[in-house]
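Sample A.
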Amino acid sequence: MQDDEKQLEIEGVVQPVLRDHGMTLVDLEWRPRRPRGVLRLFVDKPGGVGIEDCQRLSREVGDVLDASALIEEAYDLEVSSPGLDRQLRTDREFRWASGKRVRCWLAGGQEVRGTLLGIDGGFLVLAQDEGTQVKLDKTSITKARLDADVPWSKRSQDR
């Protein structure tokens, strides 16, 4: 079985557990290795994901995966939130990031920032601070991240 197929099967098993907790799967990474594989789940929910959420989800997902016998080899399960400056690679991650501020680097070094409005075919649609919209061809994007650079307010600078 190919790794992509395995990831889809794993996703099918863990999605009901995530839904039960009001969480969204941002990314799933399966790395089969010897002697142990690694399964990483990046999850989110409105208001953010805390350590307790990750611990509870890890236990429940681990139990469900063990019962499914989908992963035969020994593996480590890691559950975490996407992070403030998460790199975005897949369409699922871009859909999840819709409505959030992003930074995109294009071939040639140009950097574009804005609020991700969504995906339109092979393009990302961003609203820029000046009020303009820009469509970026996904094939020209060398890297994309959530934009964790939050401008400091005047009040926080005065402290």
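Sample B.
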Amino acid sequence: MSRQLFGTDGIRGVAGKAPLDPRTVHATGAALGAWCRSHAPAGETPEVVVGMDTRESGSWIAEQVAGGLAREGVRARFAGVITTPGVAYLTKNDTFVAGVMISASHNPFQDNGIKIAGHSGYKLPDSEELEIEKVIFRLLTEGIEATRRVMEVEARLDARYLEYLLSTFPGRLDGMKIVLDCGNGAASRLGPEALERLGAHLVVTNAEPNGRNINLECGATHVDKLRARVVAERAAAGFAFDGDADRCIAVSASGAIVDGDAVLLMMARYLHARGRLHAKDGSPVVVATVMSNLGFQRALERDGIGLIRTAVGDKYVLEEMVKRGAPIGGEQSGHLIFMEQATTGDGLLTALRVLEVMQQTGKPLDELTEGFHSYPQKLVNLRVKERRPLADLVAVNAAIEAAEQSLGSDGRVLVRFSGTEPLLRVMVEGPTNESVENHCALIAGAIRSELGAS
């Protein structure tokens, strides 16, 4: 049986509508509460830490989750506005049985979501999310009523996470000029405070959230303004975060975008040179997803570093990292995981690691990412009304096969359903923009013909 509510990054949807209507959210809290009671030490009252990003719907969703937890005798402690990795850190390093983050990551303010981490700090496995789903549906069938529970923000919780971040940095950034785009999200206070305390000269943008401007033409998915600002300010680097700050996209002094692939390459080279990149079997490896650019793979190969690819989703990257003992991994989109220091993608931690390499080597970002030439890549998102198995789409498969034969070893084709939205994604990578555009158009046309996608 497959999951119906949980996607690759928790439960996500339009706030106020199923599955993020008050009753379902309350039932989710109650189902999680039952899970917590079964996983808590005997005789102890289970506690769950709850955090949220800056969306206007975050407070009532958090209160409904807390109400559901209370129904099962589980106490919710509220960290207020905090990053997703901040919740994961607190969950792991305190007595919390679980952590809940209310966020829809890079999505617009109308959307929201519920992400759940276990005491390990890792997102719950698919099998356990499925068990929680079964309880949610049972409670809804039984007619559970939505009841909020108001919580007071415990300021020391996010302060503990901030202190941890600062403890991972080996020096100071005195005088280094850095531009931050906080996406009007969870990093709006924590990001500037962290770098200011390290002595950086900051130019801060998009750090005035109003509940509706999160990710609005800013942050990790809209970096053009950040690029221009970095160049205009003659800054050493710029960093953009998404709504819950588990992503980070960097910008070099020249205005070049340094995405997740480029940061991973830079970090892999840095760690490999110091003998710190080895997996359990002794080989130097990086874990990334099927979306990572072919140019990234080729650059790693030239440096004698292996690339392990997984399905899209940082939880799948993490599972493979744990399995292989790989120290770093992540996604092109900027979800980067540093196993020695975190259990999930962390945008603020990523920025600190990039700045550490710049500081320790004395090299600018442009030099640190030399030799990385991205292959032209085209990504098309098609909105679909149904999810028919791709294997059943004859014309689509014919278009994919034709593209793969034409591109050969100089390109890749990836067609997949989104794990968080009703989208079918088409990605084509190849040696020239023309070939990529042509094959992408042919595959998208076949999908529209067979599925009526828009």
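B remarks: The chain has 14 helices and 18 strands. The mean pLDDT is 95.
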